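Pipeline run #58 for the internal structure catalog. This entry was flagged by the ingest filter as a single-chain record with no existing model, so it goes straight to prediction. Upstream metadata was stripped on purpose; only the residue string is passed forward. Reviewer on rotation: M.T. Logging verbosity set to normal.
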Amino acid sequence: MRDPAPWQKKYGMMLGYACLFGFMMQYLFVGYAPGISVLLSVAGFYGLYFYAIKGRLGGFEPWEGQSKAGWLMLVPVALIALTYALFANSFFHALNVLALPILIVMQTIVLSRNSKHAWYHATFLQDMARHVFGRPFGYVSVPLEMIRAWLPARGSAENSHWGKIGKIGAGLLLASPILFVIIGLLASADRIFLSWLAEIPHWLDGGNMVEGILRTVLALCISVYTFCYMWGLLFPNVMEAAAPPSEVDQERLAASGKIQFDPVTAGTLLVCVNVVYVLFAIIQFSYLFGAADGMLPSGVAYAEYARRGFAELVAVALINVFLLFPGLHWIRQSGQAGEITRKANLTMLVACTIVMLASAYSRLSLYEEAYGFTQTRLLVHGFMIFLAIMCVIALFRIWVERISLSKAYITTGILAYLVMNYINMDERIAVNNMDRYERTGIIDLDYLSRLSTDVVPTLREMQTRHANMTEIQSAIDHVKANDSHSSWPSWNLSSYLARR
């Protein structure tokens, strides 16, 4: 048989590495909570990825001059994977199950230039879906064909491959009785070896055997899918990885088929909306910012005022953010005066949105002062800050048209998501509630005991300050009892520090 060419050997090694990756994944995650295993699996994936694309980076076929964005996306991927080894927040652990694969798919597609669309355009989502759900399943036959090609062809000669396999089988058959005697002697000489042998019947009683089969099937599925995903990046069905059109060309193509509203109609709509928003902003400045001094509306209790309104205000702010896109792109230009009017209306819309966010933020702060800090409330706080930053970006975009709003929003979204992962939310909740206890003497230890081990250092600090509060130790014990990061694949720094 002719020796395979170097490129054939590389793809064979790719399949072998994909199999190692699949078995590593099932070992690290089946039966274990995510921890340092996530960082190891991401490192393993990128080891396979960079081996697969080796030789194409920098100047091969359509991959010449990869975008810097492809390399920069490695940073959020690494940081999100690292959170599993640092923190124990179950909410972000669950959320990152979606965020991490999405970023990995984005990064691998951008770096390998397998999309004709810019990564910040909505059409890029189509390419992501095609690479994740389409191409890998279309290439399932590739690894099967490779394995079939490796198998020896049947032959009648004594020295053929199948003849050699038969001889190997005969040798194993003759060795069986000898192995039986040797294993028996070794088992009687070493108790540990004997204990290992004693476990073999349990593997065959059904439970472990079925689990082993399922693990093997899962590992093979992961291996085949990963290999086919890499193959789809290397060999797309159509050469859509060719040099993507410039941003100007894309915007021109998009503009040819988009909706164009009459500027007078759109201006009337924006003016009506802004009139309502300006009146609302005046009311907010009159009442909201004096609410802490008792200047509440007549007939409204403090708790009701704090509880009601902030969710609705956030919803309206979201609507306003979405109104910006048609306001920026779907209104037909009508001369300098019309453009200035349009931009002034959009600026007023954004300014009123910022006032609404400030009002909602203040209301939620009042609620937290009265009822304490929780994960949901801090998440809403962070989301409102994120919306405010988006509004500031929109203000620049209204008057500086060369700014790409989608690129700025996606980049800001990724950065904001990383910040929320790394502020250690459970610890922040514990610190804020401890500060609130110092002011009011009220704290919900039952809620804190249901959070992750990230709260343990703060609870220990509070225990040092208030040694008479025996409930704190009970809360710490409850947190540690619910910790699922005891095995090494699930290791993370937070659980390690809590157990010390």
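catalog note: Confidence is low (pLDDT under 50) at residues 1-5, 238-257.
catalog note: The CA atoms of residues 446 and 475 lie 7 Å apart.
status: ready for reviewer M.T.
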